[in-house]
Amino acid sequence: MKKIVLAGGCFWGVEEFISRIDGIVETKVGYANGTTANPTYEEVCSGSTGHAEACYITYDETKISLTTLLDKYWEIIDPTSFNKQGNDIGSQYRTGIYYIDENDKDLIMQSKASLQKNYTKDIVTEVMPLKGFYAAEEYHQKYLKKNPNGYCHIKLD
């Protein structure tokens, strides 16, 4: 099984969208690449922790390739929007691809460069190694499955 962490605004929608893809084994939402250990949702929302709301993904690469997963990810975000997705504004809503396997970096960078050809504005999605991930509080996990009418900036249907 392979693992990667994707940030794309509010983590509820990212998790729900990604969890529906064939080959996804597990998802969990949390806080990635910040400076505070074990932050709370309220701390992350304050903008003081440096964390992005993100989705930790375990996938079966015999069923879905990283390239295909990234193609699907690019469909649900505006990669040119800095610290904002939909109505969500703040550094915690930035877009990011945080790799765990160093061997994935080149493929991620190629995917980003290929996508850039479709935009006149620069893609601001950060690509970095995962420096830390802390699972969000339980009520955030599978939030849109528990609350089907909950807010989501991603079109899920």
Automatic annotation (TrEMBL):
The active site is at 10. The keyword Transport does not apply. Its EC number is 1.8.4.11. It is an enzyme of class 1 (oxidoreductase). Pfam families: PMSR. Gene3D superfamilies: Peptide methionine sulphoxide reductase MsrA (3.30.1060.10). GO terms for cellular component: cytoplasm. It catalyses: L-methionyl-[protein] + [thioredoxin]-disulfide + H2O = L-methionyl-(S)-S-oxide-[protein] + [thioredoxin]-dithiol; [thioredoxin]-disulfide + L-methionine + H2O = L-methionine (S)-S-oxide + [thioredoxin]-dithiol. GO terms for biological process: cellular response to oxidative stress. Keywords: Oxidoreductase. Residues 3-153 form the Peptide methionine sulphoxide reductase MsrA domain. One of its GO terms (molecular function) is peptide-methionine (S)-S-oxide reductase activity. It comes from the Bacteria. Has an important function as a repair enzyme for proteins that have been inactivated by oxidation. Catalyzes the reversible oxidation-reduction of methionine sulfoxide in proteins to methionine. PANTHER family: MITOCHONDRIAL PEPTIDE METHIONINE SULFOXIDE REDUCTASE. Belongs to the MsrA Met sulfoxide reductase family. HAMAP family: MsrA (MF_01401). This is Peptide methionine sulfoxide reductase MsrA. It comes from Clostridium saccharoperbutylacetonicum N1-4(HMT). The gene is msrA.
